[in-house]
Amino acid sequence: LHARYVLNLLHETRKHLKQLPNISHVSTCYSEEITVCGDLHGQLDDLFLIFYKNGLPSPSKSYVFNGDFVDRGKQSLEILVILFTFLLIYPKEVHLNRGNHEDHMVNLRYGFTKEVMQKYKVHGKKILRMFQNVF
C-alpha cells in the first residue's frame, strides 16, 4: 500500500480512537456471537485463518482484538492496516485493545520498527511516528 494511503489510514484511525473512552464495554446476548482474539504478533496467516473460520467483521460478526498485533512476525504492518480498516468500517463491531507490543521501545527490540523501515524506506520514519501516535 502506498505510503500516502497508510498515513491517511493512520490519521483517520487516530481521529476515531481519540473519540473513544479508555475502556471499552462490549456486551453480547445469547443470539449474538463475539470473537475474541489476541497475540497475532505479525502472523498474517493467523488473522486470515481466524477470518476464514469465523467470518469477516460485519454488523452481525463482532470482534475484540486484545493487542500484541505487532513484532516477531514479518507482516505486522499488514495486520494493522487490515484491523484499522475494519475498525473504521465497523466501529461498533470491531474493538482493538492495546497490548504491551504496541510500544515504541518494545517495537525497537522485537522487530516492528525494522519492518516498517524496510517496507517504507523513504517515508518509514514518518509512518513509524504515526503508528506510535496511534498506539
Task: Explain how this protein is built.
- This protein has helices at residues 3-19, 44-54, 76-89, 104-110, 112-119, 124-134; strands spanning 34-37, 62-66, 94-97.
- The chain has 135 residues and is mainly alpha-helical.
- It has one domain: Metallo-dependent phosphatases (Purple Acid Phosphatase, chain A, domain 2), CATH 3.60.21.10.
- It has a 3-stranded parallel β-sheet, covered by helices on one side.
- Helix 2 links the parallel strand 1 (34-37) and strand 2 (62-66).
- Helix 1 crosses helix 3 and helix 5 crosses helix 6 (124-134).
- The longest helix is centred in the N-terminal third of the chain and has 17 residues, at 3-19.
- The protein is globular.
- The protein starts with a helix and ends with a helix.
- Keywords: Hydrolase, Manganese, Metal-binding.
- It catalyses: O-phospho-L-threonyl-[protein] + H2O = L-threonyl-[protein] + phosphate.
- Its EC number is 3.1.3.16.
- InterPro entries: Calcineurin-like_PHP, Metallo-depent_PP-like, PPP_phosphatase, Ser/Thr-sp_prot-phosphatase.
Q: How are the elements arranged and paired?
A:
Blueprint (H helix, E strand, L loop, with lengths): L2 H17 L14 E4 L6 H11 L7 E5 L9 H14 L4 E4 L6 H7 L1 H8 L4 H11 L1
Parallel strand pairs: 1-2, 2-3
Helix pairs in contact: 1-3, 1-6, 5-6
